Automatic annotation (TrEMBL):
This is Kinesin-like protein. One of its GO terms (molecular function) is microtubule binding. Residues 155-266, 351-427 form a coiled coil. It comes from Trema orientale (Charcoal tree). Gene3D superfamilies: Kinesin motor domain. Belongs to the TRAFAC class myosin-kinesin ATPase superfamily. Kinesin family. KIN-14 subfamily. Residues 441-797 form the Kinesin motor domain.
Length: 819
C-alpha cells in the first residue's frame, strides 16, 4: 500500500524538509480524525483497544507483526468486533510524541494489512463456497426441474392412459350395460314370447278342446238338428196328418152337418117321426155327445198337438238359434283358431327370429364378455401399470420432496452465506473505504506514453527515467532537463509499457466506490441508510501526451479500450452481480464538452442547440447552459440531456454519438485538435429493498484539454496568437480551479468559470484520481516538467500541507504558467 507520507513535492532542496516532516504528520492527523468520527457514528458495540486483540494467541502481537508481515502463510483470524475495534482504534500517544505516533500508526497499518489479508482470504473462501453452493444449488435445481418435468410427463402420460382407459371402460361398461339391458329385454321378450306361446299353446289346446267340444256340440247339435228336423218333419207330417184329419174332421163335420141337416130333416121327418124317432134322436144325441166328446178330444188333441207343435217350433227355433249361435261360435272359434293359427305362425316366426336374435345376442354377449374379459385384463394391467406409476410417482415425489428439502437446506445455507456475504460485503466496503481513505481522497497517477514515430529525435531514456530504489519503485519518476534531474513521486507511475488493463486494475477499486458508496448518511426520519459515492477520474497533460488514449482508448481494439469503457463495463457487471443481493440500480448518463467557457451538450439530439453554440462562438449571444451546485455537493447543468442507461451497449452507442457530436462541433468550429474538456457523468442510484440501504453514486470521467504545442497546432499569425492566449487562459484557470479545490479552499478562483463543473468532483466528499500524462518526446520536456510540478503540488496538497503554505494562486506560480 502506498503511504501518503511518500507523496511529496519535487525533492528540491527547498521542499525536501517540508514534504518529509510536515506532510505525513498532517495526513495522519486527518485519517485519525476521520476514523474517530467513523467510530463515533458507528452503531456496533464499542470495543476494547486492539491491545486486547493482541492478547489473543492467534493474532500476532504488534512486535511480531513486522516479522510475519511478509509471510502470507500466517493465518490470523479477526472477529467483526476486532475489525471494528481496529477501525475505531485511536492513537494513544501524545499529540506531540510524533515518533511514538508514527510507530503506532505503522503498527496500526500493519495490523490493518493483516486484517485486509485475512478479509481477502475470508472473502475468497466465501466466494468459493458461495460459488460451490450456487453450483450445487443450480445442479440440484436442474436435477429437480428435470425430475419434475419427467415426473410431470410420466404423470401426464399415465393420466392420459388412465383417462383413455377409463373412457374405454366407461364406454365398454355402457355397452355392456346396454347389451345387458338388451339381453334382459330380449330375455324378457323371449320369456314373454314363451309365456305367450305357452298361453297360446294352452289357448290353442283349450281352443282345440273347445273346438272338439264345439265339434261334438255341433255333432250333438247336428244330431239334435237332424232329430229336430226329423221331429219337425214328423211334426209336419203329424200336422199334415192332423190337418188332413182336421180337414177330414171338417169334411166329417160337414158331412155330419149335412147329415145333421139331413138328420134334422129327417128329424123333421123324424119329429114327425119324432116320437118315432125320439128314441132315435136320443140315440143320435148320444152319438152326437160322443162325437162332441170325441171332437173335444180331437180339439184337445189338436190344441195339445198345436202346443206341442208350438213347443217344437220354439224348440226348433231354439235349436236353430242354438245352431246359429253354435255356427257363429264355431265361426268365431274358427276365426279365432285361424287367428291363433296365424298368431302361432307369427309367434313361431317371431319366436324363430327371437331365438335367432337371442342366439345372436348370446353370441354378441359372449364376444362382449370375451372383450370385457380382455378389457378387464387390460384394465388390470393398466391398474398394475398405474400402481407402478403411482409407486414410481410417489418415489419420485419422495425424491422430489428430498430434493426440495435439500434445495431448502441449500437455500437456507445460501441465505446464510448471502447474509454472510452481505455482512462481508459491508465489511469489505468499510475496509475498502479505509484503504481508499488511507490512500487519500485525491490520488495522482503518472502515465508515460511510448515514443511515437512523430516524436522528435532522442529516446525516452534521455528525458524520463524510473528510480529503482525500493522506496520509489513503481512510484517514482525522474525527468531530466538541461542535465538536471527532477525527481517526483506519485501514488503510481506507469511507464510506456503499461497496458490499458494494467492501468485499469489500479483504478477499478475506486470505480467500485461509486457503486458501493463510502460515506453513510442516515436519514433520521426514515432511518434509511444512504451511502454517497462520488468518484472523479481525470486526465491532465499536454497535447498528445495520451489523455484520450488513457481515458477512452481505441474503441476498435478491445485490448486498447480506455478507462471510460472499462469502468462502465465494470459498473454494469458489478451492478448486475449485486442484483442477487437485492440491489437494484438506476443509471443515468450525460456527456458534455467545455470549450473556451462554452458548454456543448453532446447527447442533445436538437441540432438548434449546436447552432446556438455556433452563434455564441461567433459572438452572438445565445442560450447558455448554467452550472449549479446544490447543498449536497451535486452539480447540475440546466437543459443538459440525461439519458437512462441499462447496459454497456447503450453506453457504447452514447459514447459513439458523443464522439460524432464532438467531431461535428470541431468541424463547425474549424478546430484542428482537441482543445475541449470532455466530461462523462454517470449518476448511479441503487436501492436494496432487503436491507433498506441506498446508494447515490456519481462517476465523473474527464478528459481535459491539453496545452497546445503551438509548433504543431498548424495555426499561423493572429490565429496562432489567439489560440495560444485562449489555451493558456483556459489551462491556468483549470490549474487554479483544480488546485484550489484540491486544497478545499473556501475561495475558489474563477468560481464563475465553466471549469467549476469539476468542483464537486474534487471538493467535499469526492474521491479523485488524477492522471498526469507525459510524452517522452525530448522536445516537450518543458511541458512535461510543468505537468509534473503541478501534479506533485496537487498530490502534496491532499496529504495535508498546511493551508498557509500552499494558499496561493497557481496562476501566479511561474512554474505553472504556459506559453
Ligand atoms: N500508452 C500508449 N500506448 C500507445 N499509444 C499511445 C499511448 N498513449 C498515447 N498514445 C498515442 O499517442 C497519440 C496521442 O494520444 P492522445 O490523443 O490520447 O493524446 P491527448 O493527450 O489526448 O491529446 P489532446 O490533448 O490533443 O487530446 C495517439 O495516437 C495515441 O494513440
Amino acid at each position: 500500500m502506498a503511504s501518503r507520507s511518500q507523496n511529496r513535492a519535487p525533492r528540491s532542496p527547498s521542499t525536501k524538509k517540508e514534504s518529509n516532516d510536515e506532510a505525513p504528520f498532517d495526513k495522519r492527523r486527518r485519517i485519525a480524525t476521520s476514523r474517530t468520527v467513523g467510530g463515533q457514528t458507528g452503531n456496533g458495540p464499542r470495543r476494547q483497544p486492539f491491545s486486547a486483540v493482541n492478547n489473543r494467541q492467534d493474532v500476532p502481537a504488534a512486535g511480531e507483526i513486522s516479522s510475519v508481515e511478509g509471510s502470507d502463510s500466517v493465518n490470523v483470524e479477526f472477529t467483526k468486533e476486532e475489525v471494528e475495534a481496529l477501525l475505531n482504534e485511536k492513537l494513544k500517544s501524545s499529540k506531540f510524541d510524533l515518533k511514538k505516533r508514527l510507530e503506532q500508526l505503522t503498527d496500526h497499518n500493519k495490523r490493518l494489512k493483516l486484517c485486509i489479508k485475512w478479509f481477502q482470504r475470508a472473502e475468497e473462501s466465501n466466494l468459493l463456497e458461495q460459488e460451490k453452493l450456487r453450483n450445487a444449488l443450480e445442479c440440484s435445481e436442474k436435477k429437480c426441474i428435470d425430475t419434475e418435468v419427467e415426473m410431470k410427463t410420466k404423470i401426464e402420460e399415465i393420466d392420459a392412459i388412465n383417462s383413455e382407459l377409463q373412457k374405454t371402460i366407461a364406454t365398454l361398461e355402457e355397452k355392456v350395460a346396454k347389451e345387458e339391458s338388451d339381453k334382459l329385454d330380449a330375455i324378457n321378450c323371449h320369456r314373454r314370447e314363451k309365456e305367450a306361446r305357452d298361453a297360446a299353446e294352452k289357448l290353442q289346446a283349450s281352443l282345440s278342446a273347445e273346438l272338439e267340444k264345439a265339434r261334438q256340440d255341433k255333432l250333438v247339435a247336428d244330431q239334435r238338428v237332424s232329430t229336430s228336423e226329423d221331429l219337425y218333419n214328423r211334426a209336419q207330417e203329424y200336422n199334415k196328418s192332423l190337418q188332413q184329419y182336421n180337414s177330414k174332421l171338417q169334411t166329417d163335420l160337414e158331412t155330419t152337418s149335412e147329415s145333421l141337416k139331413r138328420v134334422e130333416m129327417e128329424k123333421l121327418t123324424i119329429v114327425e117321426n119324432l116320437s118315432n124317432l125320439r128314441g132315435h134322436n136320443k140315440a143320435l144325441q148320444d152319438q152326437l155327445t160322443s162325437i162332441k166328446a170325441s171332437q173335444d178330444d180331437a180339439i184337445k188333441q189338436k190344441e195339445s198337438l198345436a202346443n206341442e207343435l208350438k213347443c217344437i217350433r220354439v224348440e226348433l227355433q231354439q235349436v236353430r238359434d242354438d245352431r246359429d249361435r253354435q255356427v257363429t261360435l264355431l265361426q268365431a272359434s274358427n276365426a279365432e283358431v285361424d287367428k291363433y293359427r296365424l298368431n302361432t305362425l307369427n309367434s313361431t316366426v317371431e319366436m324363430d327370429n327371437l331365438t335367432k336374435r337371442s342366439n345372436a345376442l348370446e353370441d354378441t354377449c359372449s364376444s362382449q364378455k370375451e372383450r370385457i374379459r380382455a378389457l378387464e385384463c387390460q384394465l388390470t394391467a393398466a391398474n398394475e401399470k398405474l400402481k407402478m406409476a403411482d409407486l414410481s410417482a410417489s418415489e419420485t415425489r419422495t425424491e422430489f420432496e428430498e430434493q426440495k428439502r435439500i434445495i431448502r437446506e441449500l437455500q437456507d445455507r445460501l441465505a446464510d452465506i448471502e447474509l454472510k456475504v452481505v455482512e462481508g460485503e459491508n465489511l469489505r466496503k468499510k475496509l475498502h473505504n479505509t484503504i481508499l481513505e488511507l490512500k487519500g481522497n485525491i490520488r495522482v497517477f503518472c502515465r508515460v506514453r511510448p515514443l511515437l514515430p512523430d516524436d522528435g529525435a532522442g529516446t525516452e531514456n534521455a528525458v524520463i527515467s524510473y528510480p529503482t530504489s525500493t522506496e520509489a519503485l513503481g512510484r517514482g519518476i525522474d525527468l531530466s532537463q538541461s542535465g538536471q534531474k527532477y525527481p517526483f513521486t506519485f501514488d503510481k507511475v506507469f511507464n510506456h509499457e503499461a497496458s490499458q488493463q494494467d492501468v485499469f486494475v489500479e483504478i477499478s477499486q475506486l470505480v467500485q466506490s461509486a457503486l458501493d458508496g463510502y460515506k453513510d448518511l442516515k436519514d433520521r426520519c426514515t432511518r434509511i441508510c444512504c451511502s454517497i459515492g462520488r468518484v472523479c477520474i481525470f486526465a491532465y497533460g499536454q497535447t498528445g501526451s495520451g489523455k484520450t488514449y488513457t481515458m477512452m482508448g481505441r474503441p476498435e481494439a478491445p485490448e486498447q479500450k480506455g478507462l471510460i469503457p472499462r469502468s462502465l463495463e465494470q459498473i454494469f457487471q458489478i451492478s448486475q452481480s449485486l442484483q442477487s443481493q437485492g440491489w437494484k440500480y438506476k443509471m443515468q448518463a450525460s456527456m458534455l464538452e467545455i470549450y473556451n467557457e462554452t458548454i456543448r451538450d453532446l447527447l442533445s439530439t436538437n441540432r438548434s442547440s449546436n447552432v446556438e453554440m455556433m452563434r455564441t462562438e461567433s459572438g452572438v449571444v445565445g442560450k447558455q447552459y448554467t452550472i449549479k451546485h446544490d447543498a449536497n455537493g451535486n452539480t447540475h447543468v440546466s437543459d443538459l440531456t440525461i439519458v437512462d442507461v441499462c447496459s454497456i451497449k447503450e453506453i457504447s452507442s452514447l459514447l459513439h454519438q458523443a464522439a460524432q457530436s464532438r467531431s461535428v462541433g470541431k468541424t463547425q468550429m474549424n478546430e484542428q485538435s482537441s482543445r475541449s474538456h470532455f466530461v462523462f457523468t454517470l449518476r448511479i442510484s441503487g436501492v436494496n429493498e432487503g436491507t433498506e440501504q441506498q446508494v447515490q453514486g456519481v462517476l465523473n470521467l474527464i478528459d481535459l484539454a491539453g496545452s497546445e504545442r503551438l509548433s504543431r497546432s498548424g495555426a499561423t499569425g493572429d490565429r496562432l496568437k489567439e489560440t495560444q492566449q485562449a489555451i493558456n487562459k483556459s489551462l491556468s484557470c483549470l490549474s487554479d480551479v483544480i488546485f484550489a479545490l484540491a486544497k478545499k479552499e473556501d475561495h475558489v478562483p474563477f468560481r464563475n468559470s465553466k471549469l467549476t463543473y469539476l468542483l464537486p468532483c474534487l471538493g467535499g466528499d469526492s474521491k479523485t484520481l488524477m492522471f498526469v500524462n507525459l510524452s517522452p518526446d525530448p522536445s516537450s520536456v518543458g511541458e512535461s516538467l510543468c505537468s509534473l510540478r503541478f501534479a506533485a503540488r496537487v498530490n502534496a496538497c491532499e496529504i495535508g500541507i498546511p493551508r498557509r503554505q500552499t494558499n496561493m494562486r497557481i496562476s501566479q506560480d511561474p512554474r505553472l504558467s504556459y506559453g
